[in-house]
Amino acid sequence: MISKALIFVSDFLNHEIKITHGIDEDRVVISSLISPDGSISESVENKIVISVINLEHETVANSSGNYINGGNNNFGKVSPPVHLNLYLLISANYNSNNYTEALKMLSTVIGIFQSNTYFTKQKNPDMQSPLEKLTFEIFNLPINELSHIWSGIGAKYVPSIVYKVRMITIREDLIVKEVAGISGVQDNSGITSK
């Protein structure tokens, strides 16, 4: 589910950047800036890089509807879905010779999200199921927390912005218990109605 959301976002950004700047190649990639071995990730130079820096469990969301119809008047009890907010670091990973290009591309991304603060299946039919809605808001970080993030990543700072994306729902409809449905209701006179 997370990967579907990020692929949708990167495809959307690439499309909009190509139209805005009249270019043919993709400029947005989904990647970490640094590989686990400490080396620079391949194919992120001179790109806008989308990286997940945190996942947050959304506990306010309604988790009702924990039964699914199994047919034959039976219902299956399923575990409630998990609702997640994503924190995305969007970095303009350009070398120092292209610093103004980095700022231009990052400004373009901010402008795209300023005019498209949310995405829905109705508005964006290419959004893959079961995604239904994604909302984007800038997440402000104090400079010291931002410094900790870049230290944790193991990379040198490049122009970037953090967005909070609400909300990814992960739901596996694995039945944990079967429950029989009600077949009739008996009133006080002993008569059963269907």
Task: Name its key features.
single chain, 194 residues, alpha+beta, STM4215-like, three-stranded antiparallel beta sheet, 3 helices
Task: List strands and helices in order, with pairings.
Layout lengths: L1 H20 L6 E3 L16 E11 L9 E5 L2 E5 L3 E12 L5 H17 L2 E3 L12 E6 L4 H11 L6 E11 L4 E6 L4 E2 L5 E2 L1
Parallel strand pairs: 1-2
Antiparallel strand pairs: 2-5, 3-4, 4-9, 5-8, 6-7, 7-8, 10-11
Overview of this protein structure:
A six-stranded mixed β-sheet has the order 1-2-5-8-7-6. The protein has helices at 2-21, 99-115, 143-153, and strands spanning 28-30, 47-57, 67-71, 74-78, 82-93, 118-120, 133-138, 160-170, 175-180, 185-186, 192-193. Strand 10 and strand 11 (192-193) form a beta hairpin. It contains three helices and eleven strands; from the N terminus they run αβββββαββαββββ. The protein has a single domain (2-63, 81-171), classed as STM4215-like (2-Layer Sandwich), CATH 3.30.2000. Helix 1 (2-21) crosses helix 2 (99-115). The mean pLDDT is 85. It is of the alpha+beta class and 194 residues long.
Q: Strand count, sense and closure of the main sheet?
A: 6 strands, mixed
Share of residues in helices:
10-25%
Level-1 CATH class name: Alpha Beta
Nearest-integer average pLDDT: 85
The domain tally reads: 1
Q: What's the tally of helices? A: 3
Rg, Å, rounded: 23 Å
The sequence of SSEs as H and E is: HEEEEEHEEHEEEE
CATH architecture: 2-Layer Sandwich
Distance between the termini: 41 Å
Tally of extended strands? 11
Strand order of the largest sheet: 1-2-5-8-7-6
Regions with pLDDT < 50 over 5+ consecutive residues?
Answer: none
In one word, what is the shape?
Answer: globular
What fold name goes in the CATH topology slot?
STM4215-like
Report the portion of residues in β strands: 25-35%
Briefly note the structural class of the backbone: alpha+beta
